Automatic annotation (TrEMBL), chain A:
It comes from Pelotomaculum thermopropionicum (strain DSM 13744 / JCM 10971 / SI). Keywords: Iron, Iron-sulfur, Metal-binding. Residues 1-35, 37-66 form the 4Fe-4S ferredoxin-type domain. This is Ferredoxin. Gene3D superfamilies: 3.30.70.20. One of its GO terms (molecular function) is metal ion binding.
UniProtKB/TrEMBL annotation, chain B:
GO terms for molecular function: electron transfer activity; flavin adenine dinucleotide binding; steroid dehydrogenase activity, acting on the CH-CH group of donors; succinate dehydrogenase activity. This is Succinate dehydrogenase/fumarate reductase, flavoprotein subunit. One of its GO terms (biological process) is anaerobic respiration. Keywords: Flavoprotein, Oxidoreductase. The keyword Oxidoreductase applies. One of its GO terms (cellular component) is plasma membrane. It comes from Pelotomaculum thermopropionicum (strain DSM 13744 / JCM 10971 / SI). Residues 439-554 form the Fumarate reductase/succinate dehydrogenase flavoprotein-like C-terminal domain. Pfam families: FAD_binding_2, Succ_DH_flav_C. PANTHER family: BLR3196 PROTEIN (PTHR11632:SF73), SUCCINATE DEHYDROGENASE 2 FLAVOPROTEIN SUBUNIT (PTHR11632).
Amino acid sequence: MAVRVNRSLCNGCGDMAEPMCVAVCPGDLLYRDESNRCAVRDWRDCWDCAACVKECPRQAIEMFLPVQIGGRGSTLTARSGRGRITWKLTRPDGKEEIFEIINQTFNEVK
Amino acid sequence: MNAGRVKIERKSADIVIVGGGTAGCFAAVTIKEMCPSADVLVVEKAHVKRSGCLAAGVNAINAYLGPGETPESYLDYVKRDSAGLVREDLVLSIGQRLNRVTEKLESWGLPFLKDESGRYKFRGKRSVEINGEHIKPVIASALRRSGAGILNRAVATNYVVKDGRAAGVFAFSAREEKFYVISAKAVICAAGGAAGIYRPNNGGPARHKMWYCPFNVGTGFAMGLRAGAEMTTFEMRFIALRIKDVLSPTGTVVQGVKARQINALGEEYLNRYGSDSTPVRLYATVEENKAGRGPCYLDLTGLPDSDNSRLKEAYLNMSPGIVLKWADEGVEPNGKPLEICGSEPYVVGGHGQAGYWVDSRRRTTLEGLFAAGDAAGGAPKKYVSGCLAEGEIAALAALEYIRGIEVPAAGDQEVAAELGRVFEPLGRQKGAAPDDYEERLQKIMDEYAGGISANYELSGPKLLIARELLRELQDEISANISAGDMHELVKAHEVIDRALVARVLVEHLLYRKETRWRSYQERVDYPVRDDRRWLVFVNSVYDGETKNIRIIERPWKGLG
């Protein structure tokens, strides 16, 4: 499975000690490179959990299927908001589909 | 490498928990709720916000007692699905807590789907639908609010054993050359099960496209084995029936929208195989393929168009890869049947019943060590809520155990020995990389111990070859594995631990001379189930000195 970083969107989370994508990857596969942007260490080890995709505040990480399992260029990005996540699916022909899903109810704040 | 340059950091806690996943977080929260003054530390290899099995999310709570269901009926179901052999006391104790822990998840902010009357929306008798993309951050928030200590990016390697009891944990930082010596009055192992023991379905850049978390590598089992704890039922491997290529779960379409399971001829084939237990659904699919009637599919073509979007949302909550697959193929979910296949075999206590041999309070055979979730054996079909329940049980038992106990300290000699073992691969000039040994291990297991390429079938002669090759491999790895940096050092220990788990698994597979769980444990040289002789638990103990594995047979006992 695979994710890639759009280097024109990524700013390495500025002054944060550790970018969010680097912090949450369960396989520790992302790192901040010399140009202060994030990079994927070994995308063969990616599990498709999309934790980095969801955490990136700039939607700079997208997931896609590798060619070896039939990938033809579709991508998924995500924007996380308070209590909801918005997914953007982009097909190989550029057509987009948006999904907005409530993912937390914040009951604990009551 | 020069071990002298490694920084040693000593810590102590009343209770240390290995693994910040489902069971580990719930155990920590329970301890803090019951005893706010207790000093709890969760040691997590990744980051608790998105670690382990729930990193991607999950779209149903698969163990919840619906109307008319009881803990006893849950036990009946689990027992039936597992060919009669489960630890009834453990399964029942899980069943008694399922609904309460599930409702607690809702109180923490996990969105549950509801019907018009405000009741949970069921998919089957024991499964409720959720929007679970955020389940791990929700659980991690509860952990943070509880006040428990959290040590992220700390890779546990072994228990501190003092006077014959677990007295803490050794770990190292995944980020820097730092070694943790954590002393504790009690330890709870909630480190998950093991993936990556067998060759996965896909190669190259999709090699980690598996169902179970590839970063759960059996470290919790390996730590217990090296400390002499008794394990059980490794031979009940779990093999998931999944959507081909992307390995997405099938329950969402089988139970959620009632897809038909058909072969290449369009026939619904499950009724040919007698039972519809979880292992048999996989076995039936393997057999249809062997008989030339494959591939097999889940047929969604009758689904109304209005359900397509709902189905994609359900998968985005858990396994987004299938949504990309549909888009890449230019089809909607109801446009084409989904081809299905089995995953590679896993060693897990949550779906199967591999793990530590525990008593009803989740005490292992090593004093002071408790186990929960995928690490604890004897009680399959726990899923998320069962792991929460076991986290609670282990937490209560550990709290009781630590009364009157002082925190012991690890001896300097023991610290030096473990530090040397842990950092030895770092900078080793000769030898092979962790990836090379991982592939070697997976090749042996796939070909000689019933992997995908062998249709999961096992036989004595092949298992004996696996036994020899694995013993040699274990020695080679100890002497030669090399790591160029800290990330590779983590991977080196993952291979070391997987190789030990694989050795124990093969011993279990050799010992059970019958066929109890189709495909999971399919001895072609002993093809028949034998309750009279084999309604027993196959357990094992590892001798770290001689590297020998001893099998212990334990009698099955029902609740009576």
